[in-house]
Design goal:
about 325 residues; alpha/beta; D-Maltodextrin-Binding Protein, domain 2; 2 domains; six-stranded mixed β-sheet; 11 strands
């Protein structure tokens, strides 16, 4: 069976398990929900958050017979969008779709206008995008092992990102820590800019999404040494997964769907189950796979645990790379435990 077919089949099984978990005895179908429009609050038009929201809301609207509208609120690293949902009525009609930036913000910012754990209730993890460790072919490294040897032979190497505190910043730092190399961060305005700096060999490496990277990999201007997830990507089947080179390496943060704290559990279960069914639709799954996105829905309780773990991980990385003071406790992660 071809790799892509095996991975799609594995994804379908995982989604089926998530749906079944939500359909057990504890799952109670709320009456008449939804009976008015539902709002998905997310960031930047054209971003991966926005693309995911559009795929999911279109199908939910068909299923529910109610409009499901997208409200794009860009600003403060996603905190503006999160603030709107934190203050919304806990009735399931206002939801937050966010990337790992939500957990990163909670880990490194002390003065957010909300508590990332106490003010939100998990609905479902949506999945995670595929990030790749890329270098310029002219560097001469053909594998992760080669690149680590290259880096260890120098006082330091440079890695690029979409800016301080971004997902690409944290991913690049996580790789340096796992690989045991000394690396200096250089931030740019966006992921595409960070990728170009690697392609032109002005920067040594970047751990960045496949979206702005894949074209450079395909035409040979960038070399993907590994994908930063636990399994190989069907888009790059010959590129090893990071744990093949660095055992124990954990994948990067996930995309999540949250509701205001206090939203009734039956409503959370219904929305999560409905979203899992959307992610399992062949036409949706095909589009997600094409953009390097791996669906991985969960129950609300599972997402709550994942979120706390991600905040703790990013807090540790943030302290090491100097984004937060070494003495600052993991306040956001500890609250609500």
């Amino acid at each position: 069976m071809p790799l892509l077919q095996r991975l799609c089949w594995s994804t379908a099984i995982a989604i089926g398990v998530a749906i079944a978990a939500l359909a057990g005895p504890a799952y109670a179908q709320p009456k008449n929900f939804p009976n008015k429009p539902v709002r998905f609050v997310t960031t930047g038009p054209g971003s991966q958050n926005d693309l995911l929201a559009r795929l999911i809301t279109a199908k939910l609207s068909e299923s529910w017979g109610q409009p499901v509208v997208i409200e794009n609120r860009t600003g403060a690293g996603g905190a503006l969008a999160a603030s709107i949902v934190a203050k919304a009525a806990p009735d399931g009609y206002t939801l937050l779709l966010q990337s790992s930036q939500f957990a990163i913000g909670a880990a490194i910012h002390k003065n957010l206008p909300y508590d990332a754990v106490r003010d939100f209730a998990g609905v479902t993890q949506l999945g995670f995008s595929t990030n790749a460790l890329i270098v310029a072919p002219s560097l001469g490294a053909k594998s992760v092992k080669d690149f680590i040897a290259f880096a260890q032979a120098r006082p330091q190497v440079l890695y690029s990102s979409a800016g301080a505190g971004s997902g690409t910043h944290m991913n690049g730092a996580k790789f340096a820590l796992a690989a045991g190399i000394k690396a200096v961060h250089v931030g740019f305005k966006s992921s595409p800019e960070a990728v170009v700096e690697v392609v032109t060999a002005r920067i040594h490496y970047c751990v960045c999404p496949l979206g702005p990277t894949l074209a450079f990999i395909k035409d040979g201007r960038a070399l993907a040494l590994a994908v930063a997830q636990v399994q190989r990507s069907p888009l790059l089947p010959d590129v090893p997964a990071m744990p093949e080179a660095i055992p124990g390496y954990q994948r990067d943060g996930s995309f999540i769907l949250l509701a205001p704290a206090g939203t009734p559990r039956p409503i959370l279960n219904q929305i999560g189950g409905n979203v899992a069914r959307v992610l399992a639709l062949p036409e949706v799954n095909e589009r997600l796979q094409a953009m390097g996105f791996v669906p991985a829905p969960t129950t609300p309780g599972e997402l709550d645990k994942i979120l706390r773990s991600d905040i703790g991980t990013f807090a540790r990385v943030g302290r090491i790379v100097g984004l937060i003071a070494a003495a600052q406790p993991e306040a956001q992660a500890a609250k609500g435990r």
